[in-house]
Specification:
Strand content: 15-25%
Largest sheet: 6 strands, mixed
Structural class: alpha+beta
Order of helices and strands: EEEEEEEEEHEHHEEHHHHHH
Number of helices: 9
Distance between the termini: 25 Å
Number of domains: 2
Oligomer: single chain
CATH class of the largest domain: Mainly Beta
CATH topology of the largest domain: Jelly Rolls
């Protein structure tokens, strides 16, 4: 994917949640390969695309997010977003500890349940509720209808099932460069030896860096990358056999076996 100049984040104050309006919604359209520069804010964020696949980096991990999934980002976590293809992105901003969350004594808010970024399933109801929120910037007061929508959205977020998809990224510059290359074209090579040669390092050095930086092997890490790409391909309604072939598997059954080993459930449980 060719690099494009980074876009500045939309003025956060234009959509800043407040105690009087603790949930705000934003709509942003991005063309393929466009990317938003790193930023953070003191409120939480839920981001998903209604069309197109986006890639989001947050807390030293990267996530490929198709329309069937959303990414939860806690307050204060730096993140970036890149459009893998033309995308229409819906974003929710949520203020912690606000009256929106009901009883002040409750402990089952997303902020307490999810202290780190996570991928969530997006239900049809959640998608429709978000689509009806006011997306105008500025300090507009929340009407009764928006308050009702916000309460239902929070309930849907509480019920949203987490998806064990996400790819950790290393701090080491050499390994980071290799990992970014795998993320761009995961099927270019299959073996650590080939990837290490491209990075100008020995396979032993790369294997050691994977263990020390990410606590995993190259093959296990690459499987997570393939699963993330499979999620994006499934958003295009491609058959499982086509997805398997795109990711370098000889058959749909071979790909399904990898998914079961990695995630403990069949592909139908994770891919819409």
């Amino acid at each position: 994917m060719p690099k494009s100049p980074a876009l500045a984040p939309v003025d956060p104050l234009a959509y800043a949640p407040t105690p009087a309006r603790p949930l705000r919604a934003k709509l942003r359209r991005m063309s393929a390969s466009a990317r938003v520069e790193p930023h953070d804010h003191p409120w939480a964020q839920v981001a998903f695309s209604t069309t197109g696949v986006i890639r989001m980096n947050a807390a030293h991990s990267t996530y490929l997010v198709p329309p069937s999934r959303a990414l939860w980002i806690p307050p204060g976590v730096e993140h970036t977003v890149t459009a893998v293809e033309d995308a229409e992105i819906r974003t929710l901003y949520l203020l912690p500890d606000a009256p929106f969350f009901g009883d002040a004594q409750t402990t089952d808010t997303p902020f307490s349940l999810w202290p780190a970024p996570r991928v969530l399933e997006v239900s049809p109801l959640l998608r429709e509720l978000v689509a009806h929120l006011d997306i105008r910037p500025g300090p507009h007061p929340a009407g009764e209808r928006e308050q009702c929508l916000a309460a239902l959205i929070l309930d849907e977020l509480r019920r949203a099932a987490p998806v064990r998809l996400g790819v950790d990224l290393p701090r080491d510059k050499r390994l980071r460069q290799l990992c970014e290359a795998v993320l761009e074209t995961p099927t270019r090579w299959a073996t650590l030896e080939d990837w290490a040669g491209q990075a100008g390092a020995s396979p032993r050095t790369v294997a050691r860096l994977f263990r020390t930086e990410l606590g995993t092997t190259f093959q296990q890490w690459r499987q997570q990358v393939l699963l993330a790409h499979a999620l994006g391909l499934s958003a295009r309604k491609l058959p499982m056999a086509t997805i398997a072939a795109e990711l370098g598997y000889a058959s749909a059954s071979a790909f399904s076996a990898m998914v079961r080993r990695t995630l403990g459930a069949p592909p139908s449980h994770f891919f819409a």
